Amino acid sequence: MASFKEAENNPETPSSPKKIYKDPDDGRQRFLLELEFVQCLANPTYIHYLAQNRYFEDEAFIGYLKYLLYWQRPEYMKFIMYPHCLYFLELLQNANFRNAMAHPGNKELAHRQQFFFWKNYRNNRLKHILPRPLPEPAAAPPAPAPPPPLPVQPVPPVPAATHGMLAASGAVPSPMPYGMPPGSAFGKSDIRSSGSERRKRKKEV
Fold it and tell me: Disordered: where is this region (predicted)?
């Protein structure tokens, strides 16, 4: 009986329940502190400061960095304003990267590459998002302009005296050498009929 009372009064005995720490503000303060620290890792200069002060040689601090990987989950990621911090948090899990960031030259290199990423990310992203315009068809060569029309020169009238001279010399052909149209008052000059009349005349002679 006495031993039972001693065990009840001694909180270090195995049978006693463990006290669970509970944040007074339901973890809000812890959430904000860890969010601020994780976002500080987006700055290569701050990582260089941690390496120079040998934080990366502390095993407890290395375990804390591994614990902070829960910020990569979607329900926590939505609170992060500087997404580069998650990239550097992933790199800090590698011991070679932690040791390299202690050198000032590597810090400047990381900072320079980060600047170029911010500078060109939007343009590179738009190349894959926006639809590309269709290639324009090659413009056809312009059609040659038509030649200007030749000026029409008026024909000078032929005087009446010239008509008389041509008619007298017989140089003007008949306008209708093969006869007049049907119904005309003038007689026809049929070649076949004229030939038959000549044969008749020869017989009579």
Answer: 1-24, 137-157, 172-205
